[in-house]
Structures are given as C-alpha cells and as structure tokens.
Amino acid sequence: MTDPAPRRHRVAVLATATGATFEAGVVHAVFGSYLPDLSEDRYELLVCLERPGGLALPGGMTLTTPHGLDTLAGADTVIVPSSPDDALDPSPELVEALRFAHHRGARTVSTCTGAFALAGAGLLDGRRATTHWRHADRLQARYPRVDVDPNPLYVDEGDVLTSAGCAASLDLCLYLLRKDHGAEAANTLARRLVTQPHRDGGQAQYIETPLAAPPEDSGVADSMNWAVEHLAEPLTVAALARVARMSERSYLRHFARCTGTTPIRWLVSRRVRASLPLLETTTASVEQVAAAVGFESVVTYRHHFQHLMRTSPSAYRRVFRSGTARESAGALAQPAVGPVLGDADDGLHRQQHDPRQRRGRR
C-alpha cells in the first residue's frame, strides 16, 4: 500500500481592499502556483476574506473566494497584508482568528500596515516589529507595548514576523522560503522574479526621495562595480578613487552623496553579504569563509557579521544551510563577489539590515 503524500504547508493570506492586489500577488508568486515549475508542491495557498464571498478591488475587479476566517485560523502560516484603514481596530472576529492561529502554533506574518492588525490582536506585545516608515510612529503611539523599529525591511521574532512597505513583502516572503526550503530554492525563485535574494539596507534609504546622481558621479558607480569584482584584493579608498578618476577627497564627498555612507562601511557590508552564499552552500570553515571574502582576520569578520546580521556566522549557517552544500571547500578559491578594504573604522555606524535571527527581548 502506497503511503499517502504528506500534507503541504498551508499558507493563508487575508485579502483586503488595499493589500489584495500587490501583496497578495507577492504571496502567490512565492507560495502559490505563479511559477508552477518551481512550486514543487511545497505549499498550499489559500486566499481568505473576513466574510467569504466577493471583495471589490480598485479598477473594477472583484476577488471571490470561499475561504473565511476559519480557514485562516487553521493555516500553518497566516499572512495579513496592508490594512484598509489602520486607524480602525481590527474586527473582533479577525482578532479571535489571529489569536487562535497563534496559540495553536501557526507562524503569523504581517506586511506593511498589516502590523496594526497583529498589534491589535496582542501578538506583538513585548516584541520587536516593523511597518512602513510613514506609519511607524503611529503604530508605536497606539500600541506602546510593541517595540517598533522603523528601520529594517523585516523583523523575525520567531513565530511572528513583520515587514515594511509593500515591496518589502517580497523580501520577507523570500526569507520565509529560505527558512523553509533553503538558500537554493529562494535564490532560484528570486532569479526567476528578477529580484535580489538579499536586499541590502533598510527603510532609511527610501524615506527621502533620492536624487539622480549627476553625470560626474558615474565614477562612483564604476568604482563600486569594480570593487565587487575584486573580492580578494586589499582595496583602499585611494584605489577606488583612482578607478573613479577622482581625488580621494572628492571621491569621499561624491560617494557619501550617492550612497549616504562611506566607502569603508559600504565595502564591509558587501564583504559580509558575499559571505552568505559561502556559508549556505559550502562546508568551508568560518575562517576559510572570512579569508575568501577578504577579511584580514576571522575575529574582524565575526564582529562585522554580528553587527550587520545580528547573529553569528555559525548560527546563520545552521538556519540557512542548503541541503545541496558542496562537500569541498575548494570552490572558495575564486569567490564571486564582495570587496575587501581591510578592517573598517571602529566608528562603523549601525547599518539597518534585514535581521536573520530572532533578537533577544528587551
């Protein structure tokens, strides 16, 4: 007798008038059958409404689904997108469904202003959370027991996760796929969606409308591209300035204007990011990984990794290690990306990067 196929992980997304078209579409792209050749029956996606039937959407569309809050409460992962009106408390029925799902062990997720619904259900009390930067102050004022951080693209508190604005919902969904099925699955899907599997930075870079760099700053872009291609070389600001065809003083000024940071800080971030696939897909030691991405010592590497990723290289590897990791460290001889600049200055400011590990409660 053939054993029955294991039940797929059930993902339920609440459709709302504001979050249904984009954020629910992102959920469908990652957890649904948008790319059927990549779905591999990992998940069962269910679109739910507070009141089953039809939901009028902008542009004259109507979303129809038979699934309601009972289905939402019984899912393995529950995703709440943007609230149609975050000035209003979530309905008692939605609060009950969210609490029931949470208490039975479901993973509860919000995107953008969906955090207001999770906070209204009490699921964020005593936890760190994020939302769109424009609404962060209001979320904090309304729910003072929540530790609102307006900086990261998403926050992982274990069984409760929150993300920033709508586009950050894709970052968070890829992160969940990575946790569930490894780096290879997430990276493959990201390539098919033509997006980054890891997006550097946080919301701060989007708060003010960025100005297009003037033509003379194309040298900065040239130097950055060149640096990423020369991982193993001991780069200096002087070397980058030469590639940019600028004096060091002018280069530092133009770099700060274009990026909002310094070359050293940017390069440290790139080096840490370059180490992630090595931790995920090889059995090389942490010392070997550190050397492969250009850090002068493993102590320096661990320091900057902890600072940017809020976890250690070893802990990151345990969470994200791919099932297809190579059995040899030889592949590290020619690393693909990531610059080297020697040790960064001790005043490295706190970058707002995506947290990869649950942070200790305050």
Give a structural overview:
The chain is α/β, with parallel strands linked by helices and 362 residues long. The chain has two domains: 9-192, Class I glutamine amidotransferase (GATase) domain (Rossmann fold); 211-349 and 356-362, Homeodomain-like (Arc Repressor Mutant, subunit A), CATH 1.10.10.60. It contains 16 helices and ten strands. The strands form three sheets. It has a six-stranded mixed β-sheet with strand order 2-1-5-6-10-9, with helices on both faces. α7 packs antiparallel against α8 and α11 crosses α12. The longest helix is centred in the C-terminal third of the chain and has 19 residues, at 263-281. It is globular, with a radius of gyration of 22 Å. The relative contact order is 0.10. Residues 207-216, 323-331 and 333-362 have low confidence and may be disordered.
How do you describe this structure in short?
The protein is α/β, with parallel strands linked by helices. About 40% of the residues lie in helices and about 10% in strands.
List keywords for this structure.
alpha/beta; 2 domains; 362 residues; globular; 16 helices; Rossmann fold; two-stranded antiparallel ribbon; Arc Repressor Mutant, subunit A
